[in-house]
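Renewal narrative, Specific Aim 1. Our central claim is that a sequence can be written position by position from structural information alone. The example that follows is taken directly from our test logs and has not been curated for this report. It begins with the structure tokens describing the chain, in the order in which they were read.
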């Protein structure tokens, strides 16, 4: 019970930081509505150096995709500079502005923004493919781009952290009394929330072609203490083990109590991300990360 409380508190802290931070405009594919929200465009440390040139050891630029309600500077405050220090060209975007909230638009519309951003990254770096690292919706939405928009040919690997791969049976949302678990988003302000309900029309179409498509490798990193995308096993992807690795944090680090928000800044998760990006294929399921800071 104590672990569950800690996870929920972590989620609430991130939500509070996101909701109280200045609204931030997307870096690419911005809508007219988003342009009225803010003139700010804050990149996380290490990201969006458009002169960065991939080298032989790190040939694929890494594109970071935030989750619902988040922004790139909040979601990737620690992972972005770590990737940069490890030699990667790192890029991040804000997307999906709806009713002044980031990551809230209909998922296929957000996927179109991701497509345009990846095209820009490829043009700037000369790389034909990118690696994608996404959290929550950001770990699921790229699959629409890859499988339903022809983007698979431009993606080497998707590393999905706590993704809403098959939807969720409940999400923490704001309410008059603080927060509540919601499973019905009809009439709410967030199209992306409705899309991410298990069994939604969007989820049915997303997964109608299977969990994976030919070309990219897939790594999913999940925590059993996820209080947002539930059940946590719904995050895992089905596919050939040569191309798909599903990681449960507690299998290697049983004392890790990170919840849905906490995994984005968890050093153990970051080690798994680096393993996935440096491995020919998805993350090595036999990898044993250090479980300490």
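The sequence written for that structure reads:
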């Amino acid at each position: 019970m104590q672990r569950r409380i800690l996870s929920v508190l972590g989620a609430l802290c991130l939500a509070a930081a996101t909701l109280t931070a200045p609204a931030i405009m997307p870096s690419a594919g911005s809508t007219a509505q988003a342009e009225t929200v803010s003139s700010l465009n804050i990149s996380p440390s290490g990201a969006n150096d458009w002169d960065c040139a991939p080298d032989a050891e790190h040939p694929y630029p890494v594109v970071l995709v935030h989750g619902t309600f988040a922004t790139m500077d909040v979601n990737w405050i620690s992972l972005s500079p770590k990737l940069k220090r490890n030699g990667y060209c790192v890029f991040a975007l804000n997307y999906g502005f709806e009713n002044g909230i980031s990551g809230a638009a209909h998922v296929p519309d957000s996927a179109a923004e991701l497509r345009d951003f990846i095209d820009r990254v490829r043009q700037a770096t000369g790389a034909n493919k990118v690696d994608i690292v996404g959290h929550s919706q950001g770990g699921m939405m790229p699959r629409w781009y890859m499988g339903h928009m022809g983007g698979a040919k431009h993606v080497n690997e998707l590393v999905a952290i706590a993704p809403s791969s098959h939807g969720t049976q409940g999400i923490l949302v704001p309410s008059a009394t603080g927060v509540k678990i919601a499973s019905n988003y009809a009439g709410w302000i967030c199209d992306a929330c409705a899309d991410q309900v298990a069994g939604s029309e969007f989820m049915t179409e997303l997964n109608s072609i299977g969990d994976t498509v030919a070309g990219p490798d897939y790594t999913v990193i999940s925590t059993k203490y996820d209080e947002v995308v539930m059940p946590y096993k719904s995050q895992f992807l089905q596919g050939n083990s040569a191309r798909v690795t599903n990681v449960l944090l507690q299998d290697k680090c049983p004392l890790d109590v990170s919840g849905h928000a906490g995994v984005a800044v968890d050093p153990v998760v970051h080690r798994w991300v680096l393993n996935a990006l440096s491995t020919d294929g998805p993350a090595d399921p036999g990898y044993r990360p250090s479980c300490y800071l």
